[in-house]
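Hi Y.,

Following your request, here is the sequence exactly as I used it, all 176 residues.
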Amino acid sequence: MPNLEEAIRERAYHLWIADGQPEGKEDVYWLSAQREILTTSLEGSSETPATAHMVSWQKPPSRKSRQILIPLGVSRNEVRPIRIERRARLVNAIARGRRWLDEIVSSSATNIEQIATRQKCSVRQVNMTISLAFLAPDLVKAAVEGRLPRGIGVERLRDASAEWSQQFETLGLNPQ
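Below is the corresponding structure, written out as C-alpha cells. Let me know if you'd prefer a different format.
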C-alpha cells in the first residue's frame, strides 16, 4: 500500500473526529486505524496472515502543550486553562454574536427586538452577545484553542471595550 503511515494517520484522525476529539488517546486511535488498514489490505491481497509483513510502529509525538495567555503578575505554573465546558459555551456565544451581527448588517433581521423575540431572550442579552463579535482576533483565537486562563468566560468578555488592546488590559492579560 503506498504511503501506509499516511493512510493510518488519516484513518486515526477520522476515528478521533468521530469520537468527539478526546484528548490523550492518540495511541488508541493510531492502533485502531493501523489494525483496520492492515486487516483491509490483508483481506484484499493474496497474502495470508502467516506471510504478512510486519509494520514497525512508533508512537507519534505528543501534541505541544497549549501556550496559555498569562495574566499579568502571575507565574506560568499558577495558570490553568479554561475548562472545556466554559470554552465551548464561550466559543458558541462568540459565533452566535457574529451570526446575529451579520443578520443585522445584511438586513435579514430588521432590529434587535426581532432577534430577541425569535430567540426567546431579552434585548439586553442579544446586545451583550453581539458585543462578543467585536472581541480582538487574538482573544477569539485563544478561546477557540483553549488558551485562555480559567475565570475568563462569556460573563467577563461581554460588553468589552471596542479597542482591542484595551480588552487585554481590562482582563489583565499579556497580549503576547
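Residues 4-51 form one domain.

Thanks again,
Q.
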